[in-house]
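Subject: Interface between my chains keeps coming out wrong

I've been trying for a while to get a sensible model of this assembly. When I model each chain on its own everything looks fine, but I need the whole thing in one frame so I can look at the contacts. Pasting all components below, labels as-is. Any help appreciated, I'm running out of ideas.
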Amino acid sequence: MTDSDFQSLPPTRRDFLRQLAAAGAAVTLAPYFLAPSFAEARETAAAGAMETALSPVPAGPEAVDVTLTINGAKQTLKLDPRVSLLDALRERLNLTGSKKGCDHGQCGACTVLVNGRRINSCLSLAVTHEGDEVITIEGLAQGNELHPVQSAFIKHDGFQCGYCTPGQICSAVACIAEGHTKHDDEIREWMSGNLCRCGAYPNIVAAINEAKGQPQPALKRQLSSVS
Amino acid sequence: MTNTLVGKPVDRVDGRLKVTGGARYSAEFNAAGLLHAALVLSTVSKGKITAIDTAAAEAAPGVRSVLTHRNAPKLKEPKPDFANGGGIRNEERIPLSDDKIGYGGQYVALVVADTFERAAHAASLVRVSYAAEPPELNKEQASATKRKPKENDQGEKTQLKKGDVAAALADASLVKIEATYETPTETHNPMEPSATVAMWEGEDRLVVFDATQYVKGTQDVVAQAFGLQRAQVRVICPFVGGGFGCKGAVWPHTILAAMAAKVVKAPVKLSLSRHAMFSGTGHRTPTTQKVALAASRDGKLHAIRHHVETLMSPFGEFVETCGARSTGVMYASPAIEVEETLYEVNVAPPTFMRAPGECPGTYALECALDELSYALKMDPVALRLANHADNHPFKNKPFSAKHLKEAYALGAEKFGWSRRKPEPRAMRDGPLLVGWGMATATYPGYKMNAEAKARLNADGTARVQCATHDLGTGAYTIFTQISAQTLGVPLEKVTFELGSSDLPFGPVAGGSNSTATVGSAIYDAAQDLHNQLIALAVLDPQSPLRGLNPGDVALAAPGQLGSKSQPAKTDSFAEILRRAGKEFVEGEARMKPESKEAPPFEFQSFGAHFVEVKIDPAVPRVQVSRVVSVMNCGQIINPKTARSQVLGGVIMGIGMALEEETVYDPPTGLPVTRNLADYHVPVNADAPSVEAYFVGEPDYHFNPLGARGLGEIGITGAAAAVANAVFHATGQRVRDLPITPDKLLI
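Reply #2:
Try treating it as a single job with all components included. I did that and got this:
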């Protein structure tokens, strides 16, 4: 494996993976120091400079063009029509924050915001999103400034393994925007499409209660461009 | 040493990565030229493959290879030595090694293509013909395979006996309870499906990104399978999306991904579907547990008999150890008999699932105790206090730092237990029946072997390493805290590294051992590092510590060594390194296996759950409305993450009590509940408010940090407390989990 294998990745990621790949050398895994690189990746995406594929992904003769906006950046993709929105994000755009937990719309780990509404991206074919505005977990923070829901999840320990977390947070952002957060039982009901096997539910409810009273700047700013 | 960090509710150090989507899980290591694999699962549970037609799949667009038992490379059957740092296998069979089918869902083919969609489509084109036989799925059908294992996979005794149980059970003057409790097959279902990305560098070097609770174990088993040295295989897993036991062993998909990558000479990603997770990565075996109790009127137990029947697969023995791990440690009774019986069925291999043994075992024992409390007309807490075990029932040694009585007392107080009306159906909330139940929790203090390396840099930063894992337990965070405190370096200056086989040895993240094991290794590595700094200082003519006996010098404050006898004499890490002209100093620790001489204490954690349920009698769906759990686990390193572990255990216990069951189709043996719509895990609306408290003191007999792990104890006793609350609410004793509404309609 060589450095060039990872050229499609944003630079800081490439550096990280180069470290991982350094044959024979002790790996330096300091994942929590990667947070800024993450923000950088989002900025890169916003500038429209992010490469759209990890490597040339064959789309087949039946490929369909689709143009959509992801985290503020317009993307034109040539896709096998069977590609779900989730797989387009994860496998074609390297936006792996959205998770695949069941691929059947049963767990909510893949929740993203499409035109401001939360959907299960695994249940939605990417080519049906022509012209849509998609916000993923990678698009919630503004630079290094976390979205209030993200901060509240950290403060209240609203996750353990972290795998359902991007979906929980996207869902929570929408849940607050929908006004389905009047009391604990309402939050529990409207967050029940997002499974958490670690059982962080009481902490998720606490995090949403904390975040709901705060201004939701990031979401508003990004959705303001949605007509 | 001043305590500045251990015991503090520090936010997770990996929290920012997890809330921004930046934490990378195994399926997310995408390399250029990556190919995607899709599995074909057996649709029969017993028999032989007679033919496989792969022509259509091979001709499908983008397909690079279709592997079956006919063309798969022959690998070596790994024989890992777990006791000496080797891996774990629960399926002791190389995938695609022959035409035999032992269980439904067994992998019979693997398709590799250039995209996920093309691989999945081509896999659907593979046609497999079988000579199928009727599968044996339960103990009645598999009666010919009945056996009583002497030991479990960890060498613990499974059959226990002391005193005269039969005599006590025949004594007409004693109050007796005899009942059979059943738990169904439960499937872990971590949110992250298991996944492996495998890439070869030439013929003899392999890199594996694998969702595992044990990178060193995966390294060992994969290396053996391919005839490589361990150093030729690198296993990397910085984040695990939950495991609960199902990512502890090396399962066939990991070997298959590496096999496929070798065949197609390109990186291959194999992510399991949720469906495949129901047969591909283990489950908790169903249990049938017959419990008999005999007690005198004052509540004192005279005998406990606990007979357990569980199931295993044709491809490797696994004992759930329900009896020895619950009845074997819990109460002081002069006579105890524990029996464990195994049957071999055509179901995929079971494995450890959060508190294997203790979890179903405490369900049966603690429900039986509850039944006894009604028979004696005695408060359930008082009954347990009457049988409190100061000493281990079989080892005649005292438990170290056991504070169970305080746990009962605090739990009862926080819950308001004294307001409980003892009779069933006596408490109401409007039209709803209200039930209050309780149960005892227990889990051993396990410690394994680990190595750690600590480096202190001249700029004041530190890096500490161990090939351990963070399954969501908070390992990154607590080991950063422990590193910072033991080294005497500020938290934000410490990087703790885990999740790579390149790091010093770390054990499987299982058995709630990591805090005690890895924490102790970090402690020792920090001591080693300090010793080197001390050696530099006392020999340095410019140091205020010059000439002192090294034994008189120790960490005095963060970043500072000082003399114990002359506290005014101190020197800083930075100055010692600067004057010595060193960029860094490194310490390391290799924890050896425990000495053969047994310690004078037994290390076992205990706790208590108090549960309130509310049930509409017209539609008897059980809602758990309130839980108070009190645990005694020695020193709590981080109250925030510790509380989350208990919450998670309790909520998984609620799922066990009320919802979870993997059902197999009798004619085919295939799991019917094989997705998250049919296999119900608790959702947010099922989760009550849970209060978690900790009692007791650091257990310094166990390790220098005084900590006993707490990843599993929260689930033990939880299902029993719910079931006991359901009885209190309804007067109906449901003895087969899960307690679904239909079972309360009778």
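Reply #3:
Confirming on my end. The longest strand of chain B covers residues 432-444.
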